[in-house]
Amino acid sequence: MNYGEILSKAWKTIWKHKILWLFGVLAGCSVTGSGGGGGGAGGGGSANSTFQPGSLDFLTPSTQRGLTEFGRTLAEIPVWTWILMAIGIFVVGFFLSILFLMLGTLGQTGVIKGTGMADEADTEAPPLSFGAILTALKPHYWKVFLLHIGLHLAGFFLALILVVPIILLTVCTCCLGLFLLIPIAWLLDLLVNFTIIAILEEDLGVFEAITRAWQVITRNLGSVVVMFLILGVGGMIVGLIISLPVILIPVPLVANLLISGGQSITVGLILSVVMSMLFLPLLIFLAGVLRAFILASWTLTFRQLTLEGELSPTILNDHSPEE
């Protein structure tokens, strides 16, 4: 397999069809947890002990008074209000999780389907549009979405079952046993990616796509491992590079605290907020482009591996006719 050709073709594909950048950004939507209600409910019971003036001597008197009054206000909120807030946070978090999962599925399937469409189109064809990709992936979207739902549920119950064995493995092997889980996690992640590609590329059902993905991986394990190392390690390095500006966001706030001796945070806080508003959108955009490139590379890898499998010669037994 020509790895350089695949990587070059993936980059040329997402560069020409820049709509794939948008799908790459959407693919980064993560599922948010809804466990924030417990933290809010615990705040009311400890408000009196937390916001004591004597424990805030490093702040200005006005700030101490403000925090103390805030703590007293929290302590006066009835328990049933905290319960309703927790339920509300849980419900909102649940629906946001579903929304983000739908957007993430749309982004992932959009990049994969768009890459396949671009690979089959003529070199002189115009760039793909959002509507064209959306129309092409409609028959497959819900299968991938249900696959994601099933994976999340299976992962949840599997985590409940394996949490104790994993802890025992970690303790008994001084954390060295965790390294045994890395190849398993890699194989599962790759199996999921190839399953989704098989659904979109070959119009298979979920279980058929899982079988197909397993066949492609096991029959081309060496090539797949090399590509994983290229995309995994390379993607991690590039991801760290593009995330470096995020480290600079808290610098003004920390500098302001050091210069003022902890007496003022206003200027540093404002500068940090402004920097976050500038850097975070850029980071999200660059991460989306990187994600689109990686998904496009895996899609082209799958297409080449399956094409090579179909073109492999089949040797038949040559039985001479009986005389």
Could you please describe the fold and organization of this structure?
The chain has one domain (3-44, 62-307). With 323 residues, the chain is an all-alpha fold. The chain starts with a helix and ends in a 12-residue tail after the last helix. 79% of the residues lie in helices and 0% in strands. The chain contains 13 helices and no strands. Helix 6 crosses helix 13 and helix 12 (251-260) packs antiparallel against helix 13 (266-311).
Q: Characteristics of this structure?
A:
323 residues, mainly alpha, 13 helices, 79% helix
Offer a concise description of the structure:
With 323 residues, this protein is mainly α. The chain has 13 helices and no strands. The chain has one domain (3-44, 62-307).
